[in-house]
Amino acid sequence: MLAAPDLAAAVAQFAELTGVEPAPGGHHVGVGTANYLVGFGGAHRDAYLEIIGPDPDQPEPEQARPFGIDRLTESRLVTWGIHPGDLDELRAAARARGCDPGPVRAMSRATPDGELLRWRLTQANLGDSALVPFLIDWGATPPPPGRGLPEVGLLRFEATHPRPDAVRSALAALGAELEVRPGNRAGLTALLDGRHGPVVLS
């Protein structure tokens, strides 16, 4: 998930770097955000990137926008998620292994053509814990990659953390695959196949 302080600028920059125009996702009514989506295709055809930021068509929300958007000064990868076969089953199994994904909440948004999408997810992690994914269950709603998204190639997705073993333990409890290398800070990095060569998102 790429969060941005200015959604239109982030989408334009992504299109310039990759040559791919993200598709409008929709409005998160009452939350004050909107998103754009792009699939990864190929070996990662079930995965996608969400670009999220303030929605200029909505009034200022009563509470802070999610993912720390109101505090951002530039676009950055803030978290990631996985779509398990059974969210409740994986959540229970992870808790038994010492990793609590947190409570599950229902969400929805309207697509540009007026369709209402509904899904459930656990609270997304931020900061040093952003390397541990949140869980999402699309239920009867087709996941975004199955909705004909524009695509950009994903070459690599990885993370760095000062204490990588702790992160690897949490990832194992969730059955999530992510390379975590030692580094001075916690962060996610995606390498995309851009129009003029690799594009790094971090």
Outline the structure in words.
This protein has 202 residues and is an alpha+beta fold. The chain has a single domain, classed as 2,3-Dihydroxybiphenyl 1,2-Dioxygenase, domain 1 (Roll), CATH 3.10.180. The chain is built from 3 helices and 13 strands; from the N terminus they run βαβββββαββββαβββ. Strands 2-3-4-1-5 form a 5-stranded mixed beta sheet, covered by helices on one side. A 4-stranded mixed beta sheet has the order 6-9-8-7, with no helix packed on it. The mean pLDDT is 93.
Keywords:
five-stranded mixed sheet, globular, 34% strand, alpha+beta, four-stranded mixed sheet
| SSE arrangement, N to C | EHEEEEEHEEEEHEEE
Helix/strand class: alpha+beta
CATH architecture annotation:
Roll
Helix % is 10-25%
Number of domains: 1
Coarse morphology = globular
Short description:
The chain is α+β, with helices and mostly antiparallel strands.
Write the layout of secondary structure elements.
Elements lengths: L1 E2 L3 H12 L4 E6 L4 E7 L8 E7 L21 E2 L3 E2 L4 H10 L7 E7 L5 E7 L11 E4 L16 E8 L2 H11 L4 E4 L4 E8 L2 E5 L1
Parallel strand pairs: 1-4, 6-9, 10-11
Antiparallel strand pairs: 1-5, 2-3, 3-4, 7-8, 8-9, 10-12, 12-13
